[in-house]
Amino acid sequence: MLDFTSALYLGMRHAAGALRPWQALTTGRPAALADPPGAGAVARRLAELVGCERATLAPSTLHLFWDLFGMLDARRWAVYVDNGAYPIARWGVERAAGRGVPVRLFPHHNGDTLRQMLHDSRGRTPLVVTDGFCPSCGQLAPLVAYQQAVQEHSGWMVLDDTQALGVLGAGPRAGAPYGRGGGGTLRCSGVRGPRVLLVASLAKGFGAPVALLAGGAAAIKRFEARSDTRVHCSPPSAAVVAAAARALSTNAVVGEALRARLWRLVQRLHANLAAAGLGAEGGVFPVQTLALAPTIDVRALHHRLLTMGVRTVLRREHGGEGARITLLITALHTPQQIDRATEAIAQAASHAWREARTRRSS
């Protein structure tokens, strides 16, 4: 079975024998009393990678968003959410809304509308929530425009960079559209500042199920002092801290080669699909969604691909109720696997098109 459902974009898999040993999975102490061994060093390396002054670790992005939005005072803050933001950030926003903080959605990647909406913040400090990169539309968020709009009102921006971390980086150019370093969309866009907070999981690009919050030193210190989950939840385990450390070392040594390989595979997919009269949406990113005729039964096509030995992601259409088929490319795939998958897609799509034509004529 050819599997295109894994988001381990760089192909990093951390076997137990490849990690530095640990004495215990957990110390039994909450992070509020003491960070797990090695966590501080990993956090410092991550802060440098993403271009922020300081970072802290948490078991997941849900822990971080839960805490961040739970700290907002309804009398002082207003939250503005990009309509394409990932659900986990939205779950945190729901906590703020439940505490009386005004929450408004603005159209996906629309900086002009955001600027207009912020003029109606009524004296509250605005906090803008967005994904750094949207895999559904294959585009970076217009972070420069968002930051400029927020700065006019002395506001903040909170960025979910889980998709981009490990893949995108500084200085993207022709032939190397992912840029260098894998530091994510802050590095890619050049945006920085003490009122920008980055939240990201390492579970995709770096293959380590642990999350970071990065930003200005004062903001991170304040978060660590007020965090509820650092008091009441278990900290990241020794195993995931070791996996994160290994991922950063691997990235430093072979990260550029892995990203170059990943880009070649995405290019090959595009070329193969074009040769078959098909296409995919997603730009250069390794999340590629098939562009299919509206008459094709997408769910039936997904099932047919499964019977042909190709596992893809059947997902809801971005901003709608329709179904889409997405392939997640990783550096573990081979050119031959891309060829076999696109051959199967071309055959299955041709069969689906003939079935659709038969339905229309009957």
Descriptive keywords:
single chain; 362 residues; alpha/beta; Aspartate Aminotransferase, domain 2; Aspartate Aminotransferase, domain 1; 2 domains; seven-stranded mixed β-sheet; four-stranded antiparallel β-sheet; 11 helices; 15 strands
Describe this structure in words.
Helix content is 40%, strand content 18%. With 362 residues, the chain is of the alpha/beta class. The chain has 2 domains: 14-251, Type I PLP-dependent aspartate aminotransferase-like (Major domain) (Aspartate Aminotransferase, domain 2); 254-361, Aspartate Aminotransferase, domain 1 (Alpha-Beta Complex). It has a 7-stranded mixed β-sheet with strand order 2-10-9-8-5-3-4, with helices on both faces. It has a 4-stranded antiparallel β-sheet with strand order 11-12-15-14. Strands 1-13 form a two-stranded parallel ribbon. Helix 2 packs parallel to helix 3.
Total beta strand runs: 15
What overall geometry do the principal axes of the alpha carbons give?
Answer: globular
CATH level 1 name of the largest domain: Alpha Beta
CATH topology of the largest domain: Aspartate Aminotransferase, domain 2
Number of helical segments with 4 or more residues: 11
CATH superfamily of the largest domain: Type I PLP-dependent aspartate aminotransferase-like (Major domain)
Q: Which structural class fits the helix and strand makeup? A: alpha/beta
Largest sheet entry: 7 strands, mixed
Strand content: 15-25%
Write a concise synopsis of the structure shown:
The protein is an alpha/beta fold and 362 residues long. It has two domains: 14-251, Type I PLP-dependent aspartate aminotransferase-like (Major domain) (Aspartate Aminotransferase, domain 2); 254-361, Aspartate Aminotransferase, domain 1. It has eleven helices and 15 strands.
